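Mods, move this if it's the wrong board.
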Amino acid sequence: MSLRRETMGKTVTKQARAELTRLMLLDAAAVLLHRDGYAATSMVDIAREAGVTKGGLYFHFSSKDEVCDEVQAAAVAVLHEHVARARRRRPHLRRLADLSRALMGWLAEDAKVGASFRLAREMGSNDPRFVTFVRAWLGQVRAHIAAAHGAGELSPHVRPDMAALLVVVTCVGLESAAASGTIPAGTDLASTLSELWRVIEAAQPADSAAAEATGT
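Not the wrong board. Structure tokens:
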């Protein structure tokens, strides 16, 4: 029995080490993909950044595209965790505002999300596998807009499809402007985005604005 427990302990430790190595590789890949882009990032670069042998990398991932898939999956998990925490907290439009500001924060602080956005920008027109995160985020934007419209939180004159497009174009534009250096480095994108929400909230019906102010 003691030998069995010792063997099981070694197996668990080996599994834990393997999972840690995998996470290190994903973190390294996210940093490189966010900073350098898809074309300039190689499997050798990822292994070197993570401090893992090339053989160790290929034990976990068979190709760079598979790494990109996993980086995006991790970014989608960040999105889903945020949505789950925010569920039922505030009116739908406020949740959308919080989500968009959270996105701006992730772009600055979470390499997985930043890498996913860059992959979509650089590679999305070539292969739909590179827009996994962006599609998930866009779907959540549309869901919030539709719910806000259905709940009367938007003026009846505001078209849900156009409202969603405005949010998406603004967020994507800010990300692109920051990545290209069009706006000064270190610009607080979340605060910048707040200006958009002041405009949108000004277009809300008076009764909806009052309800949002009271959190009802």
